[in-house]
Amino acid sequence: METQKILTSSEAEEERRWWVTVPKVELHAHLNGSVRDSTLLELARRLGEKGRIAFSDVEHVILKGDRSCREVFKLFDLIHVLTTDHKTVTRITKEVIEDFASENVVYLELRTTPKRNDSIGMSKRSYMEAVINGLSSVTEVDIDFTPHSTDHHDPASSCNSIAVNNVDHQGSGRKKIYVRLLLSIDRRETAEAAMETVKLALEMRGLGVVGIDLSGNPSVGEWSTYLAALQFAREQGLYVTLHCGEVPNYEEINAMLDFLPQRIGHACFLREPDWVKLKSSKIPVEICLTSNIMTDTISSLDIHHFVDLYRAKHPMVLCTDDSGVFSTSLSKEYSLASSAFGLGRKELFQLARDSVEFIFADGGVKQELKEIFSSAAGKLEL
Ligand code: 6MZ
């Protein structure tokens, strides 16, 4: 690892473009955080015309660059006002997948919080059906979201295998993306609502749902509220990932690491004993550089824990978190890591390639992804 490289803006742009050509794996992306600004503005304008919101009040909120952690969660509330009807949920799902695929993300785990909204006849199930409709309506690229028989841990349990859209045009020149879904529990929810989400995830296993995420404003609620639901998810063979250490809540961090989730997101506020525990556990960490800086969870990339974890060869994967909210992309995150940490293309390509080991899908998908990376390594002469 060398020291930080200062790039001119044209060098940074060239680096980003190079990263667009590289296959990548995205494991930490929130659906409603990944919506295009242009779509949000269009939706806001429409609601403004109907008199439901004042467009001029929300336009600058959508376009604002830097946001504190508190502002980010206020923005999510606004985004949810704009996006949460069935048709729009379907639309944003389709667009988000096509956006990731367009920059050569070959495997995407998309997470979203199933929402209930009685006033528009939306249940958590119908919300998720709208998401699945979004997967089915992807047209610009080939999509595989049909789970394979071992996408979960318990091969004996029944998997309702409905082949909704399992296309493979290898050799046709079309891009192909694997998509799997994680259902998020929001820290504002009750224990019962969390259990409902886990049961829904189990019922939707045949439609690409592979796991559960715990997210939401880290300053709200107690993670122990969700322990029963998370334990049940794990017993039933769903994968579990937790947002861990976004705020300095040491008791919670310690308990989350003891739970041994299959992955954690962020891991910003760990203390020395927590790092020791994390490293010995080998739990892979989903790293979101731009998000951490923009929300000021980490004050500067010079002191980002990426460096220490990379040196320790701890399993890690670079992710976007909320590409819309933070105006980023996975290619930007790789080029940022390259300049901030002085890593070469070869080292970071290897990091992207190693991410395949941490996906929540079966060996068949892993094998296909490994082949994609091998072929890219040859073409890119890495
Ligand atoms: C914690 C986050 C998050 O689920 O409506 N979310 N939770 N930390 C973060 N880092 C900044 N970014 C997003 O997507 C939006 C929701 O994802 C969670 C929040 O609960 C947010 O409301 P969905 O698709």
Describe what you observe in this structure.
The protein has a single domain, classed as Metal-dependent hydrolases (TIM Barrel, Alpha-Beta Barrel). It is 45% helix and 14% strand. It contains 15 helices and nine strands. It has helices at 9-20, 37-49, 55-63, 69-83, 86-102, 124-136, 191-203, 227-235, 250-259, 272-281, 289-294, 306-311, 330-341, 345-354, 363-379, and strands at residues 24-30, 105-112, 142-144, 176-186, 209-215, 239-244, 263-266, 285-287, 316-318. Strands 1, 2, 3, 4, 5, 6, 7, 8 and 9 form a nine-stranded parallel sheet that branches. The model is unreliable at 154-170 (pLDDT under 50). Bound molecules: N6-methyladenosine-5'-monophosphate (6MZ).
